[in-house]
Write a structure and sequence with these properties.
7 helices, 44% helix
């Protein structure tokens, strides 16, 4: 097992079967990436320490053990597909739905789900045109500024649900701006991939 895989296994306490699924996922990303740009080329060698670790942290912070998880603008599947892989082992009663408007990326996500034996729904449509999903968790990574994310999440959250957003170094400014038009409770958790980034857990979302 490679060093990055070993570190991931120790950090997130996952089984050999889960690691095998992640390894196969990594191989699919490498195969498809030249054609549809799933992740930045410069990060292909850091899939485990960057994309997988960030997504695993989001899964842990969400704290969901059953119900629906909707990933907005899934792209290459972060954090939604990693959440589905971890849920297979740790919380099999979670249903993951990925919403993605790019048809080629949807085909990639469906290929991943089929290859890895995951029951993941993939909706090929715009987030704002998708029927409300009544999800317990809505997630997004590198999708839009926080005020826009809250608008999208609000549409798809069930009462009492919460959002998990993976944000970069300017997350504090985004929270301040969002509070001009929204009211919400927010927890910020450090990202395992960058000391300046954060994973936000946001609940009680209402328009100001």
């Amino acid at each position: 097992m490679g060093r990055d895989r070993q570190a991931f296994a120790e950090a997130w306490d996952v089984s050999r079967e889960t690691l095998d699924r992640l390894e196969r996922y990594e191989a699919l990303i490498a195969k498809w990436n030249p054609a549809i740009n799933l992740v930045a080329r410069s990060t292909l060698d850091n899939i485990w320490t960057r994309h997988f670790a960030d997504s695993a942290a989001a899964f842990a912070i969400a704290g969901l053990d059953r119900g629906k998880w909707v990933d907005l603008g899934s792209g290459g599947g972060f954090p939604g597909m990693v959440a589905a892989i971890l849920a297979q082992e740790k919380a099999p009663e979670i249903q993951v739905i990925c919403i993605e408007s790019d048809i080629r990326k949807c085909e990639f996500l469906r290929t991943v789900a089929r290859t890895l034996g995951l029951d993941v729904g993939v909706l090929s449509r715009r987030i704002e045109e998708t029927p409300p999903q009544a999800a317990q968790v809505v997630s997004a990574r590198a999708l839009a500024p926080l005020p826009r994310l809250l608008d999208l999440a609000h549409r798809h959250l069930a009462p009492g649900g919460h959002a998990i957003f993976l944000k970069g170094a300017n997350w504090r400014d985004e929270v301040e701006t969002a509070l001009e038009t929204w009211r919400f409770a927010v927890e910020n958790h450090p990202s395992p991939t960058s000391p300046d980034s954060a994973i936000l857990r946001i609940g009680d979302i209402v328009r100001a």
